[in-house]
Structure formats: C-alpha cells, structure tokens
C-alpha cells in the first residue's frame, strides 16, 4: 500500500517566527545601536564580545537598512530604519582618522576599549552608508554620503598600498602612520568593489569606475590562472593559493560587471541586493501583512535621481 503524503507544514502566521527576532532585539537595543557579535539566543541580550562592522557583525547592520528598502519604506518596516539610524550614530563613534594622510577607518570595540583594526569585510560600509543616506534630511544625508566617500577612499587604498595592488584581509592603524596589512592573504573578496558600485550608481562619479578597473586589473595580473582565478597567500609577495572562492563569481565579478553597466540594469528603483549580491524585488509591505504581494504593480515611495549611463550632470 502506497504511503500517503505527509500533511504540508502550516504557513507562518503574520511572519511571527521571523519578526519576533527583530522585535526582541529592538526591546533591548543599546542606545548606540551597536551589538556585539554574540547575543544570548534566549534573552536577546548582548554578551561581552567584540563589536565590529567586519567579520560576524557586518550583515546585521546591512539588513536593517535593506529590509526597510525592500519593504518599500512603509510604516510596517519603519522600525528597521530607526534601528539602522541609531546604529549609524554608533558607527560614527568608531570612526578615526590616520596621520598624516587622514584615512577614515572604522575601529573595533572590545568592552570600553577601541582597537585600531579594520577588516576588508567592513568595506561594505561605504556602499551601505551611500545607499541609506537618501533617507535622511539634507544635512545628515550630505554628512553620511561624505563619510561613505572617505571610507571608500580608505578601502581603495587597502589595495593600492600593497605591491600586488590587492588588499589584505585586514589592516592595522598606528599613531603617526597610515595603514599596515595585518592578515596578509587575499581571497578575492567583493566588499570594496561592492561599495564602488553603490557610490558610482548614487553619485555618477566615474572615479569609482576607474578604481574598480584598477582592482580588476590587479586580479587579472595576480590571480588569473588558466582554469580561473585564485587568491593570494600574501599580498606582499604575490604567492598564490589554490582556491577560487564561490563569492568571486557570485559577488566580486557581478559587482564589477554592474559597475560598468547602465543604472537601468537591476535598477535601485525596483531591486535591493542582499548580502550575497542576490537582487530582491522591492515590494510594498503593509502593517499586519506578512505576505508581500509580488504580483502587484510596484511603485517605490522614493526614487533615486536618475542619470543617463551613470554620468553626472
């Protein structure tokens, strides 16, 4: 006798299982909006651990902004934007600048102490800041876009400061000096070119295309092999490893392609990228409605200033 199919799993009601996570975090959200990388899963309270916009901490801040955008900036997702803005005030408290060149960078925090270290992973932040700047009033919008541009310049110099013109995994900053490679491998990460893509789209400044092209040329020179691309064991010596990470194709090359594509290709008016560079459609989200109607005609609340072929003016 054939076995009957098991009953289907019941659908989530009102997205409670998903929304409860952010709701609980919001109840205990710190005044500066900065969460450590470990949170108690039972209480939703922060543990004593590192606060960073790099490894293990980055996507939380990115998704606060992007859920607000994907929900079409409606009141149903307003709390995501409010939490993100609080976190950006916290980010400002972590910004320091080097001497003599005044490179802006994002510190890590351990308890009450700051560490002058920044991961290349944190180079997603310039793109995030640029993307979120349009939701502020004129003064704050200008301030956060300017910070995005400063941080992008630092991240580009992560690449330019090494003999191979490829960035190390993280950088250290010392009094009286600009930057030094900490962990010296390069595994073809996408974060810097991701931010260059956002800044080009949102400002029309072709300098970001030039920087992206220089980074691509460095990959071609140092990482290209007959069967694909590989990372480097050391960005100073140029010694190769033997692995092409999946995100090089899925993210790094995708963002480089989009950096030289018209803004109409995956338009910011209709799409938002998740942290793995997958485009998700912007869908109006209403209060007490967990199912987003993907078949309705989409008209985002606010549109970005359009530019022909990414040119300003």
UniProtKB/TrEMBL annotation:
GO molecular function annotation:
calcium ion binding; mannosyl-oligosaccharide 1,2-alpha-mannosidase activity
Tell me its cofactors: Ca(2+)
Q: Name one Pfam family in it.
A: Glyco_hydro_47
Q: What Enzyme Commission number(s) does the record list for this chain?
A: 3.2.1.-
Q: Name one GO cellular component term.
A: Golgi membrane
**Family recorded in the similarity comment:** Belongs to the glycosyl hydrolase 47 family.
Protein name per the record: alpha-1,2-Mannosidase
Q: Which organism is it from?
A: Morella rubra
């Amino acid at each position: 006798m054939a076995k009957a199919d098991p009953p289907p799993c019941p659908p989530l009601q009102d997205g409670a299982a998903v929304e409860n996570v952010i709701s609980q975090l919001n109840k205990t959200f710190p005044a500066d909006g900065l969460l450590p990388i470990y949170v108690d899963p039972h209480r939703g309270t922060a543990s004593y651990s590192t606060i960073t916009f790099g490894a293990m901490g980055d996507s939380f801040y990115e998704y606060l902004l992007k859920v607000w955008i994907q929900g079409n900036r409606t009141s149903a997702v307003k709390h995501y934007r409010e939490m993100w803005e609080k976190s950006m005030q916290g980010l400002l408290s972590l910004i320091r600048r080097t001497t003599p060149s005044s490179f802006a960078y994002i510190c890590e925090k351990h308890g009450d102490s700051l560490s002058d270290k920044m991961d290349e992973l944190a180079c997603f932040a310039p793109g995030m800041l640029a993307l979120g700047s349009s939701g502020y009033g004129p003064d704050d919008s200008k301030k956060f876009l300017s910070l995005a541009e400063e941080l992008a310049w630092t991240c580009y110099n992560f690449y330019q400061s090494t003999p191979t013109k490829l960035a190390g995994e993280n950088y250290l900053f010392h009094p009286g000096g600009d930057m030094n490679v900490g962990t010296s491998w390069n595994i073809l990460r996408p974060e810097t070119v991701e931010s260059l893509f956002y800044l080009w789209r949102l400002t029309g400044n072709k300098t970001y295309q030039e920087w992206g092209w220089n980074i691509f040329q460095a990959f071609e020179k140092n990482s290209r092999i007959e069967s694909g691309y590989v990372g480097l064991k050391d960005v100073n010596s140029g010694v190769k490893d033997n692995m092409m990470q999946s995100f090089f194709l899925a993210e790094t090359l995708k963002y480089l392609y989009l950096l030289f594509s018209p803004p109409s290709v995956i338009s910011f008016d209709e799409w938002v990228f998740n942290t793995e560079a997958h485009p998700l459609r912007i869908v109006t989200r209403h209060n007490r409605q967990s199912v987003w109607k993907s078949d309705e005609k989409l008209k985002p609340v606010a549109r970005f200033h359009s530019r022909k072929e990414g040119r300003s003016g």
